[in-house]
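Folds vary. Our protein:
___
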Amino acid sequence: MKRINNSVIALALFIGVANANAQQKKTLTLDEAVKLGIQNSKNLKIDAAKIEEATADLLEAKNRQLPELKVSGSYMYLPIKPTIDLKLPGVSAGGGPEVHQVLYGSANLSVPIYSGGRIKYGIQSAKYLVEASKLSTENDKVAIAYNVAQAYNNLFKANQSIKVLEENLVASQKRDETFLKMENNGLIARNDRLKANLQTSNIELQLLEAKNNYNIANINMDLLLGLPEIIELEVDQNYIEEGNDVKSVDYYVNTARENRKDLQALDMQRKAAELGTKAAKAENLPSIAFTGGYVAADIPKFLTIYNAVNVGVGISYNLSNIWKKNSSLKQSQAREMQLAATNELLNDNIKLDVNKEYQNTDYSKKRITVFEKSAEQANENYRITKNKYDNGLATMTELLDADAAQIAANVGVINAKADAALAYRKLLQTTGTLTTK
């Protein structure tokens, strides 16, 4: 019996711990959620790798301005006696020494002096591309911030819908109890009581759907924020109060031109392309470098060389450039044209996006007023209809319709406020200031 009791206690403790883990709750403001989303974003980890790649390209470009020092050596064994015919006075033909091995070593140094600007342009171009990668990352952060806001908005709406429906379900269940008593006392028909029961069932179905939407939205938020899926997130109720101070559309257009990171990244890419064109033109120019070297050789019983040091200046020029077309130059110029057209298109899209989201923000704020008026009317209509029903002046169908309209109107107000807050954040995203608000 004692062993059984211990097993029961252990099982109870296990269930208690499991329930505690399954019911972890965490309250987050939207700004906290955005910070977590950026911190744990998989996309930003990819962007970080791209920045490292661009930085490595910059290091490679800088390495081209450093001296090149190459050392080589070789040892050769000669199994067959070579024929050596020395054309020296006093030495007979074929009378040379026997040579069976050769040792040879050299060191060569080259320091670039002039390359037509290719090295300088390459370094500066690589710097611009590193900056472009960083700016692209900042632009992705803004997009991630909006994705988190969108998920937060869905979670908020689902949570508020649950609260409204739970309140109405309690009221509807109490009404069912009252109607059952009235039916038992012969005050209402069974059909009317069943209509009320059907309304309660519909509210239960709506509540189940709202809870399902909430669970899906919660899992989505957990994944976006890098949190375990067992954590139930609680949203900040003040979220819907954002976006009350909306400025003129020109303000947001100018803000976008100053702050859009994708526009700034494109500008860096255009500067890099311009330098690429200059570097391509420089391919038609000669290269000059300071050179130095050291040679040592040892052929036993025949020849020994050491301290053979040489210094000088080397010039190289590819004569085939005279008749070959500079394809690199053509490609770079085409790249410049492409980026210029992309810049014009992006500027047009920014104007369109800002104006569109400004109109959506204004529209969403006006919707709140309309929904609040509708909710006020629906609540008053239900009160009047309920009073009429209690006095035998309205049917059960009219009462239930008024109740359903009241629920829909109250949920509509919440959704309209949440959508207005999200629309304002979308407007901030189009200006590139969502992560700095």
Summary: The two ends are 65 Å apart (CA to CA).
